[in-house]
Design a protein that fits this description.
Length: 513
């Protein structure tokens, strides 16, 4: 019965109570018909329940009418209202593709922040752009936990790209670099010709390059790759002696993000006297597994090493377990700095993180793709980004002009990243002259990536987005941050770092080397 209620239009159980009462009043006949005919596979218009018994979830595409999770209710309502407001204007659709039914609270908050960022980009485009056309309709596409149902949802998006009613012109999103993400992006770009703007996907092989220029035709990214993050961290930490470093790495294969971190950190720690300490995360890396036990034993070994800096190649749950165990180490006289990639951005909202570890000589630094203090402080460089671009977003949030979308958090980078991904897609969609139709062809949007540099750069809240010839952001700024020992939940800005070792030049164009 609970499964039946969850499928009723409107989503949350509380909204189905009246309908349940109606069933009871009508007597047993309706329930008998339901039992005989079986459950309705539809959760609502454009949404279908998929998955094995006990793990069913509502997946598909909505204009905000269907609410995938309770914490998305407010922002979904605002998206629906904005879509209805521009319904009679010339408009195109942009879809946000993300798992929207996460089980863990910190993952749910991450998804909320990402959807909020996409909506804020839609709102700004429709309200603060001098009435530029076309207007932007925002869709939410849920492929299920771990992108389990990505193919069915991607096919639905493909059909919408061919529909004169929907005019889907871009997909933004994807916040984990995994094999299923890779498959979904490949299908959308190669088989359906839909331009895609990635969110915080950083794995090097999830993009185009000189060696594979058409691996994902029409894909653009707004954040630095894992290798670029590692290069930026290397320049930022030039004084670290490799003899005092150690890598802790997940031995699972097929996780693009972790594999990229392992390669990058192997280069940065050449000369370390110890081989990497290894562990194996669960295949579903959001789960706890038994890795905390492995870290308990590993920390004793680390205490006997000359390491003072630990490069961690793994996912957030395992990073949290490692930091907790390192905080409880026996060698309390030794201090450690743990350095990792941008996947750590969800750690500040993980209720199971032991913040006392940071008061016991552990420092956690990571390469964030954005931070509010990056461009507003006294040390902000003259190029590579601007305080004005960040404040445009911050002021929109503070003004409440865009409506109630829940509490907005800008320090974890997720809202900013999806806002910038939305701006990038919208900039390309609206690149036209008087002879071009208001509704652009799909192919023209992918070609527009080639113009998003120099004077055509996207002035993102995270910094300038200057795409190279392969759709990657050239020398994108990296915010080096750490979790504050004196304020649980606070992400403290340490400084800006650059993959090339210096700020992006004013011409904002990739060099030949």
């Amino acid at each position: 019965m609970t499964s039946f209620l969850r499928r009723l239009p409107g989503g949350p159980l509380t909204k189905a109570a009246a309908l349940l009462g109606a069933l009871v009043v009508l007597g047993g006949a309706a329930w008998i018909a339901f039992a005989v005919l079986g459950p309705d596979p539809s959760c609502g218009q454009g949404i279908e329940e998929r998955g094995p018994d006990g793990r069913e979830e509502c997946t598909g595409v909505t204009d905000g009418s269907f609410v995938f999770a309770d914490n998305l209710a407010a922002v979904s309502a605002r998206i629906k209202a904005e879509n209805e407001r521009i319904r009679d204007e010339p408009h195109v659709s942009v879809a946000v593709m993300l798992p929207m039914t996460a089980a863990q609270p910190f993952e749910q908050r991450k998804t909320l922040h990402e959807v909020q960022g996409a909506y804020l980009a839609q709102y700004r485009a429709n309200h603060d752009s001098n009435s530029k056309k076309p207007a932007i309709r925002l869709l939410l596409a849920n492929p299920g936990r771990n992108h389990d149902h990505w193919r069915a949802v991607a096919e639905q998006l493909g059909d919408m790209s061919e529909s004169g009613k929907d005019n889907l012109r871009a997909v933004i999103g994807f916040d984990v670099s995994t094999a299923t993400t890779q498959a979904a992006i490949a299908y959308l770009t190669r088989e359906r010709g839909i331009p895609v703007v990635g969110g915080p996907i950083t794995a090097d092989d999830l993009g185009n390059s000189a060696a594979r220029p058409d691996a994902y035709p029409g894909l653009a990214r707004v954040v630095p790759t894992t290798t670029d993050q590692a290069r930026a961290l290397s320049h930022f930490h030039q004084d670290i002696d490799p003899k005092h470093t150690l890598v802790v790495e997940d031995v699972r294969t097929g996780d693009n993000y972790v594999d990229a971190l392992k390669r990058a950190f192997a280069e940065r720690t050449a000369g370390s006297p110890r081989a990497p300490e290894q562990f194996r995360a669960p295949d579903e890396f959001h789960e706890e597994g038994t890795t905390a036990n492995a870290f308990d034993q590993m920390v004793d070994t680390i205490c006997t090493s000359p390491a003072r800096v630990v490069y961690f190649a793994g996912r957030p749950v395992q990073l949290r377990q490692f930091v907790n165990e390192l905080g409880n180490r026996g060698c309390t006289e030794k201090k450690y700095t743990v350095i990792t990639g941008s996947g750590a951005s969800t750690l500040s909202s993980d209720a199971l993180l032991d913040w006392d570890a940071f008061r016991k000589g552990v420092t956690l630094q990571y390469a964030a793709v954005a931070h509010p203090d990056a461009w507003t402080g006294p040390r902000a460089p003259a190029t590579g980004g601007s305080a004005a671009a960040y404040r445009t977003l911050a002021d929109l949030v503070a003004s409440k002009e865009a409506g109630d979308i829940g509490e907005v958090e800008l320090t974890d980078s997720r809202t900013i990243t999806f806002y910038d991904a939305g701006l990038t897609a919208i900039t390309a969609i609206r690149m036209r002259d008087d002879s071009d139709p208001v509704i652009p062809a799909l192919g023209r949007i992918g070609d527009a990536w080639l113009r998003l540099h120099g004077m055509g750069k996207v002035e993102g809240a995270s910094g300038w987005i200057c795409l190279d010839n392969y759709g990657n952001p050239y020398n994108k700024a990296v915010s080096v941050v750490e979790l504050s020992p004196d304020a649980p939940g606070r992400i403290r800005f340490v400084g800006l770092a650059w993959p090339t070792g210096r700020p992006t030049p004013a011409d904002c164009t990739a060099s030949r080397t």
